[in-house]
Amino acid sequence: MGKKKLPGPIERRHLIERELSTAQALRYAEAYLEEGFEVDAIAFLVKAEATDQLRVLRGRSIEAGDGFLLRAVASAMEDPPKAEEWEALSEAAARSGKEHYATDALRHAERGES
Fold first, then answer.
1. What is the per-residue pLDDT across 67-92, written as a single tens digit (0 to 9) for each?
2. pTM of the model
3. Which of 7, 38, 57, 111 matches a 20 to 30 Å C-alpha distance to 71?
């Protein structure tokens, strides 16, 4: 896909709903990731059964202190975030000045919530 224009929301939804080969799904996922649209890439990673890439994205979400992305990846993996992941995310978010994510993640860690 390279630097081609990414599909719009409706076209993206249609692509997700139809049959795609693993290679096609992975190409779309990589294109979205290249452009910084991690959340949009998740459905294509799931379609491609790219569990290693999903794990990497999950780790990046924690390192970036991005609770929204962690929830999205964890949901796609059907594996709720662990307390230690929330704690690490909280620390990363605090270092990055993302106070809302830091506070929210700490609350999840303390309550053992996903």
1. 999 999 999 999 999 999 999 999 99
2. 0.87
3. 7
